[in-house]
């Protein structure tokens, strides 16, 4: 059933049942506080609706509007906003738990939400008054990329931005779009004192961005990770910022390190794999083999299922251990050490390896049922193969972990 239409104030700000109608003097909407437990409970209750929409999500290559609004009402896009903004300032392990819950029903939805929910992190990169101008409510969704950088040309009061970016996961459902750019003057890139090209990020309203229908993929079709572009768009100077990977003190915990951006996405592979193993368990309990015996009595099924479970549980334990360590450090006011940052990178690669092995083992056990596109195993397999191609899950990212462990530094974690 479609969600009722949302009202807007005179400035066009979206209002939801969890947003007070009264505006603060700054023009921002004062949110009703939702705690972490509230959001997790709401997301869990949305599970059946997400699963029911899975075919639509894949066919339309985006989250349908009614589901998007129900997720917004559940509070998923406010999770990274600090307490001072009325956000829950959700710990990283709880963010992973939320994404895992969504991905158990549809991996594309989980992938899109883990990116759309980064608004609070990016808001913290800006001066507070500028951030509140860009994000007048904490329920706005964010998507975008900073690689490859576009061109930002200085003009009075700001910059003119031109460029095109691929892999804009979630951009078809976003309210604000991130655009990375190098600064150019007279056709030449501007370099800082260290010799690096000066790089900035900017947020634009979705209305100023052109979307290109390029996302036709084997898996994660519903994530809407399409190309997008801008052409000579003006960005006020104060709206530009630099993404910093090194830790910063004196800021809310979720803004102190850009390494937090990758962690909640690990819940997608975990949730998808749990979905597959649950389906395998149901099949193992009911299927009868060609010899007339229940397959639940076969050694290969019993041992194979246990081994797949062990792989998933190992990935799960490592991811949550790393996330908990990140949270403990950041919430205590500290900064992440190179060794901690390396563990975050290693968790991404190891999770993909273990989850992929678990799913492939499950498919071997189900036999011919794995080959039918109408069956329960087709989409999860395609989604997982696509997830594994993301840089945070590729084995070459171990190099970045090695730089952090051996050399003590890495300019970008996922370069």
Automatic annotation (TrEMBL):
Q: Which GO terms describe its molecular function?
A: acyl-CoA dehydrogenase activity; flavin adenine dinucleotide binding
* Annotated Acyl-CoA dehydrogenase/oxidase N-terminal domain residues: 53-115
Which regions are flagged for Basic and acidic residues bias?
Answer: 1-23
- The region called Disordered is annotated at 1-26
Please list the coiled coil stretches. none
Q: Which domain of life is it from?
A: Bacteria
Task: Tell me which InterPro entries the record gives.
Answer: Acyl-CoA_DH_C (IPR013107), Acyl-CoA_Oxase/DH_mid-dom_sf (IPR046373), AcylCo_DH-like_C (IPR036250), AcylCoA_DH/ox_N (IPR013786), AcylCoA_DH/ox_N_sf (IPR037069), AcylCoA_DH/oxidase_NM_dom_sf (IPR009100)
Q: Which UniProt keywords apply?
A: Oxidoreductase
Q: Which Pfam families match?
A: Acyl-CoA_dh_2, Acyl-CoA_dh_N
**Residue ranges of the Acyl-CoA dehydrogenase C-terminal domain?**
268-394
Indicate what this protein is called per its UniProt record. Answer: Acyl-CoA dehydrogenase
Which organism is this protein's natural source?
Answer: Actinomadura rubrisoli
Q: What is the lineage of its organism?
A: Bacteria, Bacillati, Actinomycetota, Actinomycetes, Streptosporangiales
